[in-house]
Amino acid sequence: MILFVAISILPLINLMISVYNLFTAPRLAAGAPEDQDPLVSILIPARNEEDNIGDCLKLLMMQSYSNIEIFVLDDNSNDSTFESAMKAAEEDKRINIIKGKELPDNWLGKTWACKQLSENASGEYLLFIDADVRLMENAVGSTLTAMDKYNTDMLSVFPKQITKTFGEKLIVPVLYWFFISFLPVRKVYTSKRDRYSAANGQFMLWKRDAYFNSGGHESVRDKIVEDLELGKFLKTKGYKTIILIGYKLVECRMYKGFKEAIAGFNKNAYAASELPGWQHISYITILTLSYLLPLILVFQKSIYLYLIAVILIQRVIVSLIGNQNILMNVILYPAHMIMFFYIGMKSYISFRRGELYWKERKV
After folding, report:
1. Of all helices (H) and strands (E), which one includes residue 250?
2. Helix axes 258-273, 166-182, angle to 10 degrees
3. What percent of the chain has pLDDT above 70?
4. Taking Cα atoms as reference points, which of 331, 309, 344 lies closest to residue 11?
């Protein structure tokens, strides 16, 4: 019974947080802003994004909110990102292509790219998105409406995560599960405590003054998970932030295939935990065992059926919030936990060895 209680704690906490998010997490709703005048600068850092940048720009050109300017920064790509972006720019004069400068010391690639983009932006609002993000027709206008509604300095969106290959389905849903299971999303907006901070670099809309007065990406120039660090930094400085569930209007296919997903999560996992090495290892081990042991122990004591039911209900709730495939997430949950542990350990080891790479560049 002691073991049952011990391994029940985290799944029960995760279930309660997930239920809370199901009913309270703010969603990005479709709606046009009353004021169509503010210029929105859409800023896209792009390194080796030849497969993404064309489709990303095509959807931006179709936005119902038309008062936009678009800047793409080619961050020293070694593929045809620049040429693909230039081809799209020929179709719309609002698109501008920038060649990125060499990476200086004490900066990481994405923060440096975003810094350069901001220096070219004229908009009253700055919208940073990744090249793999896809905005539905009303996305820009709807986020402006939401920003006015909530009166925030920075608004971030967690998109619907698109997975196509089986390898992606093994890994990417772990991110959404962790986000919904451990963070009471509404409290990012309502609480002043920095423990309830979050932001997603895939989609971040800023008021211009808030960005430049706070220091923007320069304030986190050497941080691997710059979006989480920005969320915490802004809250400690008294800025108002919010993160919205945006699956109806914003989508993202983060990685293409198993190998790329492993590399992406490997870069971020340990840095995002913000724990010393031994605590990080202990935490991911305890969490993984809490979710996997019931599947083994149920053959000894039927009481573990209740814990399995808790886990499965929680998986269903997370899937509903994120508009994910419920059956797939339920079936794959043991595999998700194994991948969670593997990536957590791999990320720690890579960090200690100085072997973190992304987009063919050392982090």
Report:
1. strand 250-252
2. 20
3. 99
4. 309
Beta-carbon-side half-sphere exposure of residue 250 (alpha carbons within 13 Å):
28
Which segments within 75-223 are labelled E, that is strand? 95-99, 125-129, 133-135, 154-158, 160-161, 203-207
pTM attached to this predicted model: 0.94
> With contact defined as beta carbons under 8 Å apart, do 131 and 46 qualify?
yes
Alpha carbons 27 and 221: distance in angstroms, whole number: 30
284 is written with which tokens? 């991911």
- Pairing of the two strands 203-207 and 40-46: unpaired
Closest among 76, 86, 68, 12 to 47, alpha carbons compared: 76
What does the DSSP 8-state code read for residue 304? H
Digit-coded pLDDT (tens) for 54-64: 999 999 999 99
Name the H helices within 215-276. 226-236, 258-273
Under a CB-based contact definition with an 8 Å cutoff, are residues 148 and 33 in contact?
yes
